[in-house]
Design a protein that fits this description.
By secondary structure, the chain is α+β, with helices and mostly antiparallel strands. It has two helices and seven strands. The longest helix is centred in the N-terminal third of the chain and has 50 residues.
Length: 174
């Protein structure tokens, strides 16, 4: 007697399910990493915008110290940060609403030609007890402690130093 019913056997269905599971296990981690890279790219762009805005203020002759940050109240207390969240002081908006990174901008000028700018992006769990989080720090010294020019610091995991001349003068990239 011949079987005239058409359809898939249980073994065929199981083979298809296993293949789909293997493909998903290869694709999902890559998709999750793209999200992290997109957040890091946003932070990299924002730190650049913060520094350009800060340098513009310096070029305009504004010498008053500026301390701006977007950290939570708990984070500010843990780091002993005395800063405002008024990004409009340097012509920027919306940084306090970022969900992926917290931003800080520091500017100080002693009035004798010694000044520094510092723009920082800190990501990951914004928790004062966590110390291993992604960060990007761009500093520019104008005769501060004998230092002149840009200096870059990054976590080495998400943000990495670009290749080329070794040292702090290399910017960070994703």
């Amino acid at each position: 007697m011949r079987n005239t019913e058409k359809g898939f056997t249980l073994v065929e269905v199981l083979i298809v399910v296993v293949i789909i599971a293997i493909l998903a296990s290869l694709i999902v981690p890559r998709m999750l990493m793209q999200t992290e890279k997109a957040k890091a790219a946003e932070a990299l762009q924002m730190v650049g915008a913060i520094m350009r805005a800060g340098m513009r203020e310096y070029d305009l002759g504004n010498t008053a110290p500026i301390w701006i940050c977007s950290q939570t109240a708990e984070w500010k207390a843990a780091l002993d940060l005395n800063c405002t969240d008024n990004w409009s002081d340097i012509g920027l908006q919306g940084l306090e609403k970022s969900k992926s990174f917290s931003y800080r901008y520091e500017y100080y000028d002693d009035g004798a030609g010694n000044s520094y700018f510092n723009a920082i992006a800190e990501g990951g769990p914004i928790d004062p007890g966590v110390t291993n989080f992604p960060y990007l720090n761009y500093m520019f010294y104008n005769n501060w402690g004998g230092l002149k020019g840009p200096s870059y610091d990054c976590d080495g995991k998400i943000f990495k130093k670009t290749k080329g001349v070794p040292g702090d003068s290399n910017p960070c990239a994703i």
